[in-house]
Amino acid sequence: MAKSEEFKHVDFLWNAEYADTLDPLERLVYRSNLLGEDQRVALTRAGEASSKLFESDPLTGEKVEVLWIKGHGEDLRTATEASLAALYQERLTGLGRVAGSEAGNGGSGPGVRRGMLFKRCAYDPRRREAPRDTLLHAFVPHTHVHLVQSPACLAIASCRDGEKICREIYGDRVGWLPWKAPDLERAVEIREVCREHPEYQGLLIGHHGLLNWGEDDLECYELTLELVEKASRYIEGRDRGEKVFGGQKCFPLDEAERRAVLMEVMPWLRGQVSRNKVFVATKETEEDIQQFVNSHHAARLAALGAAGPDHLLQTKHKPLHAGWNPQRQNVDDLKELIAKGIDKYRRDYLTRRDASGRSERGPAGDPHPAVILVPGVGMIAFGRDKTESRLTAEYFNHAVEVMRGAEAISEYVPLSAEEAFDIAHPEPEVELTAGESAPKDFKSRVVVVAGAASGIGRAVARRLIREGAHVVCADKDKSGADATAAELTEIRGAGLGMAGTGLSRCGPVLPVHVDITDRSSVETMFEDVIMAYGGLDSVIVTAGIFIPPRRDGRIDDDKWAQTFDVNVTGLFIVADEAKRLWNAQGMPGSLVLTTSVGAAESEEGGVAYNTSKAAANYLVRALAVDLAPLVRVNGLAPAWVVMGSTMLQREQIVAALESRGIAVDAKEGTDDLRAKLAAYYAESTLMHRPVSAEDQAEAACLLASERLPATTGQILNVDGGRWEAFPR
């Protein structure tokens, strides 16, 4: 067995002292995490580690053998005990008697039968759904089993001379099996191979990966690393650098040129691929992907598609290579090439779908490419959310490494075009997605909240993240925006995926600085949004300012101008800059501007504020006309939101209380004074309840959502019922 110091291409991470404190199930989770930690060993959300352990049957109390395995859609690196599926081992292996029957279908075809089969074998049905490779683990007659998609091992498994090279590297320690869907027949075949070849410690499965086993979990872990290490060294000794892909056909653009191309192309491209479903982008411009995309062989290899089922399910049957020459052609040429490529991709999809007979069995899936390769720039990958787009990028990066290794040692050979298509485009009605919940109003949507650092803006951001949105927390107070983003990330998580360059590596939350009165600052904010997510769906502006008059009741000219700069001009600048992106995408959008009931009711000391809000109300209507029919524009008009607001400081709260004849004790805390003022305003409303930031957030999200598709140019008062502000 190899020692940890002998590893060059993988990391030996096992801590024996820590592992000895764990029970067998905890050790399986620990082993899974270590395998997933190294991308040279395992791919995010792909592959499994399993253990066959004896447990007490919940019904009989007898000891039964249970297969514990990472659940469907879960990730090795982040797995916990809650991520595991548990199945009766005897029930699984008993299925060998019906090998080849319809009940055993576990491959790339309809997954409903497989799902029902695993449910009937469940030891604990409350646990995660079992992965499609479960039967392969169950039928290996050893306690601990790993299936990993190491790029080095998969390169050997995806080249023309794979079986010969497997024998050359591993001798009699590892056997070879050509590709077959991981169904019951394949599982039975693996069991028979293990019986006939007790000397085997693993199998290299064509287009699928490395399957290895052991009776001791540490030895099984070390064996996986050793086998990956041997494959990596074999490829390294034959690697020819950039010549593997035929050398460079064109050259990368510099950073400024690349950013300019991406700014013009990404929102437009998002609109092109989101005709059926809305997608979010991740860009990858690192050296490795550039070396591939810019090479002579890139178009040929891209047309062949990715190597195996895990890649294909994430990246679809093949990427779209734009065929653009950045040194000879301009951005308009690039867009024309991509548009033609997408049209051909769509037609090819429909042709293949019809040929497979699927058109008679249900609705079409999405016919657009998930990966677009742009010479000189890199890769733009799409998914239904940020995790999915990062995974798409990661999986194609991994696919490139597989192609690189296969071309270095032999010739890259993918699955047949027909089988690759069938795997990459499962029938929509039987797609299995781990843990998928009811659809969210803002799933796949990118929403900018300007004013997210506090008050209403922070409440809006919280509401959006729970609705599945990608939330850009924008504010002049960058530390406050960071704090909101951290809170939202705690709620939602950072997501999976180990890809993305620069801001595009972000998760579902992005904090940015913006001064809405400064057009260059707003431009930069939207550039960051494009670099992170590829586009924009909604903008909600809650930023505003209230400057009280001097003690003599007058307001200085500069304070008047500042009030209008923030409350009116800032709103217009944000809308005007967002308009360019919405027009580029050609996708429906929504804009919500925060005004105030003060626009409809005058109050002493509020001449500048109330007048600016009246102007903002008119701006809502003017923008509704200007941005129609693509974008809906509506206004949110709060009344006094005292609790949680940073617009009202202690001095202003005291002044407001005293002007209304309410006694103020200098010893009272600011929060107590806020509560007193909120109670006063509550009594002045028809509903007799305080108006909260959460009330405003609910209304803002409703206006921004698709639940009001015919509503634009309207002002929604959220004031507890102030009859003075009723429209007249």
Topology of helices and strands:
Layout: H1 16-19, H2 24-37, E1 48-56, E2 63-70, E3 84-88, H3 89-94, H4 112-120, H5 134-139, E4 144-148, H6 151-157, H7 162-170, E5 174-177, H8 184-196, E6 202-205, E7 209-214, H9 217-236, H10 255-273, E8 280-284, H11 287-293, H12 298-304, H13 309-315, E9 320-321, H14 331-355, E10 371-374, E11 378-383, H15 386-409, H16 417-424, E12 446-450, H17 455-466, E13 470-475, H18 478-492, E14 509-513, H19 519-533, E15 538-541, H20 557-585, E16 589-594, H21 607-627, E17 631-638, H22 650-659, H23 670-683, H24 693-704, E18 715-718
Parallel strand pairs: 5-6, 9-10, 12-13, 12-15, 13-14, 15-16, 16-17, 17-18
Antiparallel strand pairs: 1-2, 1-4, 2-3, 4-7, 6-7, 8-11, 10-11
Helix pairs in contact: 6-15, 10-14, 10-20, 13-15, 13-16, 17-18, 17-24, 19-20, 20-21, 22-23
Average pLDDT rating: 90
Question: What does the main sheet amount to?
Answer: 7 strands, mixed
CATH topology of the largest domain: L-fuculose-1-phosphate Aldolase
| Helical residue percent band | 40-55%
Features:
single chain; 728 residues; alpha/beta; L-fuculose-1-phosphate Aldolase; Rossmann fold; 3 domains; seven-stranded mixed beta sheet; seven-stranded parallel beta sheet; 18 strands; 43% helix
Question: What is this entry, summarized?
Answer:
By secondary structure, the protein is an alpha/beta fold. The protein has 24 helices and 18 strands.
